[in-house]
Design a protein that fits this description.
Length: 397
């Protein structure tokens, strides 16, 4: 029997385009909205979600996936910068499915003759509850990932949301921009494109929370974008908004691999952000005077003093931790000279790290050029190999 699907359309935006015959041509882009997009939850009893099309989305009809304990909607920052963590959560969910699908014995009523003959019982695997979650990949997040990620990384993200008879994943793709109840018009929110994206993600998560509430399954929002977090804390249910670190420590406290992966990704992002800030600072400091490149060496008698060795020039003295710019011994740094009236010499006393830096210095002014570190060009990283004992007894803060 043919089932009618409700389809509505609206003009999303009208923009000007340069044509051949005339100078400008008005182009109207139509954006179609639907009312019959399923949520993808196997236990949902909604009329649309119970259809055969909705059951094929997560492979629920094949009985190969265990029922999740909760659902997670993630934002564009998690889907792009934490892509390895999303793939690890998908793999961890599939591993948990294989462990929770235990054989279940069922018996059928048989005749007395067959019972005496010793009929074998039928073995079948029934889906049970899994401690891991099903991730919701929104269309808004996928569009942003297609714009930011490379072609191979974007295909990797979309392959996680691909489910067929032979492949079952823990990521469900939801077309929130074509669903009438979660659609947000472009430019309607404050903040332009960024505000519209944040509002689309929060609105889709709010609809999921209200829709899946009757099934008894919680829906959480895991985000790293500050705009999404600020909007979600006022629009969503309490205790349902987490960052990646908070979610892992709350619902996966014993998954040390996931927590270590998150810490590694976050450290790499902080290093890239620090390098970007240094480049911006170097561009601003270039106008204040010449910048020299050299090797940073901390003084052995006073750890609040250091020298920068520059080829074919006198060494530059760095006095005070505030002028070192978080550099460590052996780094390749960029230094700018201070005015001559601020030049000084090495201190004549030996000081430890616990002593205050505002003590009097027995120095002679003007004896050596002094400067300040304005950037770190290359870190003096050293690889270390360690072995940890008693891992089962340690606690994750």
């Amino acid at each position: 029997m043919y089932q009618r699907r409700v389809v509505r359309w609206c003009v999303r935006r009208v923009h000007k385009k340069k044509g051949r015959a005339v100078s400008l041509v008005s182009v109207a882009k139509e954006h179609y909205l639907r009312d019959d997009i399923p949520c993808g939850v196997p236990t949902c009893r909604d009329r649309v979600c119970e259809s055969a099309y909705a059951q094929r989305v997560l492979g629920a009809g094949a009985g190969t996936a265990a029922l999740p304990s909760h659902y997670v909607v993630f934002d564009a920052v998690v889907g792009t910068k934490y892509l390895d963590l999303v793939a690890a959560l998908n793999s961890a969910g599939l591993t948990a499915d294989a462990a929770t699908l235990q054989p279940h014995t069922t018996t059928k009523p048989v005749s007395k003759q067959r019972k005496n003959a010793g009929a074998a019982t039928q073995q079948q695997a029934l889906p049970t509850s899994s401690p891991h979650a099903t991730l919701i990949l929104l269309q808004t997040v996928a569009n942003e990932a297609q714009r930011v990620l490379t072609h191979s990384s974007f295909n990797r993200l979309m392959e996680m949301a691909t489910t067929s008879e032979n492949v079952t994943n823990r990521v469900h793709y939801f077309s929130n921009e074509h669903f009438s109840k979660t659609y947000v018009e472009a430019g309607a929110a404050d903040g332009g494109q960024t505000g519209s994206m944040a509002q689309s993600i929060v609105k889709a998560c709010a609809w999921y929370q209200a829709h899946v509430k009757k099934c008894g399954l919680p829906v959480f929002l895991v985000a790293e974008d500050q705009d999404v977090l600020a909007l979600a804390k006022t629009a969503l249910a309490p205790n349902s908004v987490f960052t990646c670190g908070e979610y892992l420590h709350t619902y996966h406290p014993s998954s040390f691999d996931l927590i270590a992966m998150h810490d590694s990704i976050q450290l790499q992002l902080e290093q890239k952000e620090h390098q970007l800030l240094q480049q911006q600072q170097q561009g601003a400091d270039a106008e204040k005077g010449p910048v020299f490149r050299g090797h940073f060496r901390v003084c052995g008698k006073n750890n609040s003093e250091a020298e920068v060795r520059i080829e074919s020039q006198e060494d530059i003295l760095i006095v005070g931790k505030e002028n070192m710019g978080h550099a460590i011994h052996g780094d390749t740094v960029l230094v700018r000279l201070l005015p001559k009236e601020l030049w000084t010499a090495h201190s004549q006393e030996i000081r430890s790290a616990d002593e205050a830096e505002n003590e009097m210095r027995a120095t002679v002014k003007g004896s050596q050029p002094c400067g300040v570190v304005v950037g770190i060009e290359k870190r003096n990283w050293r690889p270390y190999v360690s072995e940890h004992f008693g891992l089962k007894d340690c606690t994750v803060p």
